[in-house]
Design brief:
The chain is α/β, with parallel strands linked by helices. The protein has 22 helices and 13 strands. 44% of the residues lie in helices and 11% in strands. Strand 4, helix 8 and strand 5 form a beta-alpha-beta unit.
Length: 477
């Protein structure tokens, strides 16, 4: 991991973050829900999940989609869709036009197209866009309508394309979804500059994982605080599965391993789990793997299972809306996550929220410090043998498995549950409304790069492939 991510540094970072958040919560006023907020950059519905909970609490919170992002998983529709996609198209508007899905009825969702001609420098100046930025980044001015919408709000939380927060005058917090900070912010072109400006000029960078903190050190960003992102704990919850009878009648089995992650060896470590799962399925004919059929290595994995004689024990599932996904999770005996980054994501949290035992790899040093109640009690391994041992223990001792699932649900509620953590996000939104655009400095990040960090970054730069390249590689190893 990145050399700054020591226990001492992370404890200082987390302690300050926790105390600062608590101060904001203590100052939270009853009229915080009277303000008009927004979330922006809804890749994989990472932002709508926040907005939906705030709306349940009476907060007016718009959802703004990127003008060019029509991917079905980036539309709030996907979060509440109780169905599977049986067609190749992944374009929301195409799917609606072809009658595959119905147009979303979710209100407060906006997607502005690019305007046909350049807005005037005077119009952009009213949004707080400087003449220098207007000239330097003229192609980005075509997103004027989105900037204008954001500029009229009390505050917002932006992700994915951070320049939308930067190119208007309203206060905003930045959230990293991964590649926007790891890769795009490192580009030397106009887009890379704007991504860095979007992060560095935010009131806050809301960091919920150590990789974001490492990237902040790398770029020199000092405005990050730790705050867990949350999921709706009522929506993602244990219960009886409406899909179990159908799946079992078609495929049999009484022990279900579930995986939703892209089949991708380089970024997910799919091969680590695959070898163990094959061996497990060969031994236990009553076991089934329920696998979402997507990813760069899908066909390779299909061939792998077939060549090892377990193809009839693999249930290939089409991409499923999140409401349907919850039904699959509720019938799962185990969830297999990722093994490369040492971090957990939304998919892992969805499983934990549904009280499903999780096997994957999470870096214990950093998460043990950052998570309010410590490491999640998953079966933590980055070796194929560890995956196999975990599966064997789960199938042999169903009471152990049930207890592990219950412990993960309790951990989820304490560390990422909506009832606990939405209030901290609302307090940050209110704070930004009061202060306006003001970069908040975390004292734990004020020191410059140490010699160890400089050497590490220099070594990593020597290993880096030529741009453009979006391979995860070893940038955080």
């Amino acid at each position: 991991m990145y050399p700054w991510l020591t226990t001492e540094n992370l404890e200082k970072f987390e302690y300050y973050s926790d105390s600062h958040r608590q101060q904001l919560v203590n100052r939270l006023e009853s009229n915080a829900t009277d303000q008009h907020y927004a979330v922006y950059g809804n890749m994989a519905n990472s932002m709508y999940t926040r907005a939906a909970v705030l709306r349940q609490k009476g907060v007016q919170c718009d959802v703004l989609l990127h003008p060019q992002d029509n991917f079905i998983m980036s539309h709030p529709f996907w979060e509440e869709y109780d169905g599977d996609l049986q067609v190749e198209s992944r374009d929301y508007h195409e799917l609606v036009a072809e009658g595959v899905i119905k147009k979303s009825s979710i209100e407060g969702v906006f997607q502005y197209g690019n305007i046909g001609e350049m807005p005037s420098i005077e119009a952009c100046a009213e949004l707080g866009i400087s003449a220098e930025d207007y000239e330097a980044f003229s192609p980005f001015m075509l997103n004027y309508e989105t900037y204008k919408h954001l500029d009229g709000l009390s505050a917002s939380i932006c992700a994915h394309s951070l320049y939308f927060g930067y190119l208007n005058s309203s206060p905003y917090a930045a959230v990293s979804l991964g590649g926007d900070l790891w890769f795009e912010a490192s580009r030397s072109d106009a887009f890379g500059y704007l991504q860095r400006a979007g992060f560095s000029n935010a009131n806050y960078i809301l960091a919920s994982d150590p990789l974001t903190i490492a990237s902040c050190r790398r770029y020199g960003f000092k405005n990050a605080i730790y705050i867990p992102h949350y999921l709706d704990q009522q929506f993602y919850s244990p219960g009886e599965s409406s899909q179990k009878q159908k799946i079992v009648s078609q495929h049999g089995g009484d022990f279900n391993i579930f995986s939703t992650g892209r089949l991708d060896v380089s970024t997910k470590g799919s091969n680590i789990a695959a070898g163990a799962i094959v061996e497990f399925l060969q031994k236990h004919k009553n076991a089934r793997l329920m696998q979402m059929a997507w990813g760069n290595d899908l066909e390779t994995m299909k061939d792998w299972f077939a060549s090892n004689g377990v193809a009839d024990q693999v249930v290939w599932l089409p991409l499923s809306g999140k409401k349907r996904l919850v039904e699959y999770l509720r019938m799962a005996d185990c969830f297999v996550g990722q093994f490369v980054l040492g971090a957990y994501g939304h998919a892992d949290l969805e499983a934990m929220a549904c009280a499903v035992p999780v096997i994957g790899y999470i870096d214990p040093t950093s998460y043990g410090v950052l998570c309010p109640t410590g490491m999640p009690p998953i079966i933590n391994t980055k070796e194929s043998k560890g995956v196999l041992d975990g599966l064997e223990k789960l199938i042999a001792d169903r009471q152990y498995a049930k207890g592990l699932g219950a412990n993960l649900r309790a951990w989820f509620e304490a560390n990422h549950g909506s009832e606990k953590w939405y209030i901290d996000h609302l307090a940050i939104l209110q704070d930004m409304t009061k202060t306006g655009r003001k970069i908040h400095i975390n004292p734990a990040l004020k020191k410059g790069l140490s010699m160890i960090e400089k050497r590490y970054l220099a070594e990593q730069m020597m290993k880096a492939p030529e741009f453009p390249n979006y391979e995860v590689g070893s940038i955080f190893s």
